[in-house]
Description:
Elements: H1 2-20, H2 22-28, H3 33-36, H4 41-64, H5 69-92, H6 95-118
Amino acid sequence: MLFAxxxxxxxxxxxxxxxxxxxxxxxxxxxxxxxxxxEGRFTYVEILVFTIALTALTxxxxxxxxxxxxxxxxxxxxxxxxxxxxxxxxxxxxRVAAGHxxxxxxxxxxxxxxxxxxxxx
Length: 121
């Protein structure tokens, strides 16, 4: 399950980086997804889909293992925060919003993992 969490987490995290530094990657010759997706629609949808899948997976894991209510509340709040930053990026399509999402993902993963350690089954 930890692998699945980190696997899903990497998409919003690294695609936010790719959006922030799109021009730098292009100048260096790296072919990142945002370079192929000129308008960015596919990239923003992909970030949103993986964010929803990530938050749903963490909630399902916590619920399925019969962990206590504080963990479920904490994971719900964290998922809502991450989803908020994802929706802001999808709406504004700015480099600043991508940076905010990047910081949110950097905070999200260790907090989720720490909460899961705090409330083992």
